[in-house]
Design brief:
Distance between the termini: 12 Å
Radius of gyration: 17 Å
Order of helices and strands: HHHHHHHH
Number of domains: 1
Structural class: mainly alpha
Shape: globular
Length: 196
């Protein structure tokens, strides 16, 4: 177990070790949904919620069931089952209370299940030997970092929508260039705190 305060891990997960811009996890839905700020905010909040909840549940399952019963080799399957169940509950909740957001997210809401950023958080908590509070801080920071990145990209994409972009760069090309520049901008925070 590393001896770093959970708040430091939380801040580092947002800025210096952003799960998306440092590790490039969760790129699929990031690139696809980031065309509009509203749907990006909705998906980002869903990712934050699912990341924190699944990290907490996966931590308890790992240390209270898998390790004591010496069935750690099932961790990938169990983590994915927990993530899938949480996403299903989130999807039901969003469909019930915000049908417009549910339909704007479309297929990408159920695809949070295979968002590798969420799975990556579950694996990083084990690899880095985080305590429960460190895991919660890391999960919340990772989710908020992902939300920050998708909101920034959505805002930029909406601003340049009306501008002239060369034909060869329209769509994915300009989006990947913007993402690369954002990743470079986040490197500027790297002198603050880095979590390994």
């Amino acid at each position: 177990m590393i001896d770093v305060h959970p708040f430091i891990i939380f801040l580092a997960a947002i800025f210096t070790s952003n799960i998306l811009l440092s590790n490039f996890l969760g790129m699929c839905s990031f690139l696809s949904i980031s065309k509009e700020v509203e749907s990006s905010l909705g998906l980002g909040m869903a990712v934050v919620f699912v990341t924190v909840l699944t990290a907490a549940v996966n931590y308890v399952v790992y240390y209270q069931i898998l390790v004591p019963f010496d069935i750690v080799y099932l961790q990938y399957i169990i983590f994915i089952i927990v993530i899938a169940a949480t996403v299903q509950l989130t999807e039901i909740f969003i469909e019930r209370f915000s049908p417009a957001l549910y339909y704007s997210l479309g297929i990408f809401l159920p695809l949070i299940t295979v968002n590798c950023a969420i799975f990556g958080v579950a694996l990083f908590m084990i690899i880095r030997k985080y305590s429960f509070m460190q895991t919660i801080g890391f999960a919340a920071g990772s989710g908020l970092g992902w939300l920050l990145a998708i909101m920034a990209l959505a805002g930029i994409r909406q601003r340049i929508k009306e501008k002239m972009v060369p034909a060869g760069l329209q769509g994915a090309g300009i989006t990947l260039i913007i993402t690369g520049i954002m990743a470079l901008a986040f490197v500027g925070f790297s002198g603050s705190v880095i979590i390994q």
